[in-house]
């Protein structure tokens, strides 16, 4: 039986290239819940589709790989919890941001599985592209903002922002990949003061 215009419009809203907000929210919620229950190893697009009541073609049209979907879950959770602090000093901005980031990695489903996503990116080209080309440019906006504010205040050289951001990522990912992200205010402060060029001292 031919589809009526209304039926065809509903079908296109759910499976077309343009994302349907309700369907997208259902898929992301299903993915987050599945990640919380089964972790990265037990995560599958088949199960996400079943829980969300969505077709696999729809999911793969919007998220070509599992890594793409997990990155969006991670990004949504992180954006809801962490914002770039503005304390007036770069070292204390970094301190507050890093403590919140490590708590997010320890305490949320997507945060706890981020290490596995990094590991997969070392073995699979699709996951590597998703991490490098999608995740990093988007998720580093808040981090770059802290350094750019410091440069605008004259606290650091604007030409050093890119290098300082990469050094910051290196410190955090070493801690994450070696499972050393328990809250460590003195260790984080030492790193923060070093990157900011601030003299040693106690947190105020």
UniProtKB/TrEMBL annotation:
Keywords tagged on the record: DNA-binding, Transcription, Transcription regulation
A Pfam family of this chain: TetR_C_11
InterPro entries given in the database record: Homeodomain-like_sf (IPR009057), HTH-type_TetR-like_transc_reg (IPR050109), HTH_TetR (IPR001647), Tet_transcr_reg_TetR-rel_C_sf (IPR036271), TetR_C (IPR011075)
Gene Ontology MF terms in the entry: DNA-binding transcription factor activity; transcription cis-regulatory region binding
Domain HTH tetR-type: 21-81
Record feature DNA-binding region, as residue ranges: 44-63
Organism superkingdom: Bacteria
Record-annotated membrane-spanning stretches: none
PANTHER family hit by this protein: HTH-TYPE TRANSCRIPTIONAL REGULATOR RUTR, TETR-FAMILY TRANSCRIPTIONAL REGULATOR
Name of the protein this chain belongs to: TetR/AcrR family transcriptional regulator
């Amino acid at each position: 039986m031919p589809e009526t215009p209304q039926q065809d419009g509903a079908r296109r809203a759910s499976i077309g290239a343009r994302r349907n907000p309700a369907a997208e929210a259902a898929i992301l919620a299903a993915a987050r819940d599945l990640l919380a229950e089964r972790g990265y190893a037990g995560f599958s697009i088949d199960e996400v589709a079943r829980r969300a009541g969505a077709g696999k073609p729809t999911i793969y049209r919007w998220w070509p790989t599992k890594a793409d979907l997990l990155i969006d879950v991670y990004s949504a959770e992180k954006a809801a919890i962490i914002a770039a602090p503005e304390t007036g000093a770069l070292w204390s901005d970094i301190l507050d941001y890093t403590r919140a980031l490590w708590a997010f990695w320890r305490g949320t489903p997507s945060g706890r599985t981020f290490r596995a996503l990094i590991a997969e990116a070392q073995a699979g080209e699709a996951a590597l592209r998703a991490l490098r080309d999608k995740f990093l440019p988007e998720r580093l906006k808040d981090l770059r903002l802290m350094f750019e504010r410091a440069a605008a205040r004259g606290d650091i050289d604007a030409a050093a922002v890119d290098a300082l951001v990469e050094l910051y990522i290196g410190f955090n990912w070493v801690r994450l990949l070696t499972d050393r992200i328990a809250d460590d205010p003195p260790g984080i402060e030492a790193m923060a003061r070093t990157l900011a060029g601030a003299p040693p001292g106690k947190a105020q």
